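Lab notes, practical 5.
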Amino acid sequence: MGLASLALFVSGMWLMVLGVAAFLVIFVAPIDVTLFGGQGSAANVSLVQAAIAIVAVIALVFGLSRMKRIYLQKKLKQ
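Output from the prediction step:
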């Protein structure tokens, strides 16, 4: 069970990373059209995209940290 749980842990981490990357590519990249109707200045659009990306990465870091903590607690109990 030791290697299987580690493989699940690593797979879960990669799924989280790929999920955030997909969110950034699918929803944040075309935000100029959806939020500003194609009329926003490049600086404003970039500022909004950067802010959303920073929040997404911070959420990813907290999620991965929590996942690691849960995994380690389960392993230390064994």
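Observations recorded by the TA: The two ends are 11 Å apart (CA to CA). The helical segments are 2-28, 31-36, 42-77.
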